[in-house]
Structures are given as C-alpha cells and as structure tokens.
Amino acid sequence: MNKPIPIDEEYTFEAGLIVSSTDLDGMITHANRKFCEIAGYTKDELKGQNHNIIRHPDMPKAAFQELWDTIQTGKDWSGVVKNLRKDGRYYWVYSHIMPIHSKDGNITGYTAARRPASPNEKAEAVQLYKELLDKERN
Predict the structure, then answer these.
(1) What are the structural domain ranges in the chain?
(2) What is the C-alpha to C-alpha distance for residues 97 and 73, in angstroms, rounded to an integer?
(3) Mean pLDDT of the region 92-97
(4) What is the pLDDT of the chain when averaged over all its residues?
C-alpha cells in the first residue's frame, strides 16, 4: 500500500506550459495535456468544471477578486498562484491570463498560460498571501 502524501508536500514540474481556457463564468472549456498531468485530472474531469476546482485553500479571496476585476475589464492579469492537485499535493505557478475577444470586440472567455513559479516569486507570494489571509480572518 502506498504511503499517503502529506497535503503540504509540493509538486513541481520541469518543462512545458499549463494552458487552459474558460467561459465567462470560469467554467473550463479547454485543458492541455500538461494541465491534466500537473493537476492530476483527466480532460473529461476538468471540462465543464469551474476553474476553482484547483484552487488551494491557502489562496486569499482578495487575490482572485483582483484577478477577476482585471480580466473582466478586458485587461491581462499576471501573478503567482498556489494550485491544488486532485491528490492533495500543490504546485506554484506564474500565471498570465488574457481575455478572449470575439470579432466584434466582446469578451467571450479567458485563456491562461502558466509556468512554474520561481523560488523568489513563491517566497514573495507566500508572504503577501499570508498577510491577505490574516486580514480575511480578522
């Protein structure tokens, strides 16, 4: 029998970008092979699910509010995010999210490309998110 992996044990990946797309409500419409591999889900398990299926509980609500406020105005957003795998492990990514526009200029969804976060990016994010979570709890 395999020993369970503690939830705080980090999962890292070496090469390739995680790419996904969502509709306007954050429901996954596309997940590339690397996303499935890293998150531990099949494409069928991800498609149609809200993207927060991989949201780690350590992520403050304020971080996602800023993300949504930015992309819903048609602007790109970049930042570091801690994601949760299906098996309970987690991984840190530097994410760049951009709106998808129709020919007439309306936003029809969002696409995100993610790479592994650097040690410095993770360290900065851990401190910032700890402060934000402390504010949310008080």
Answers:
(1) 18-137
(2) 12
(3) 95
(4) 89
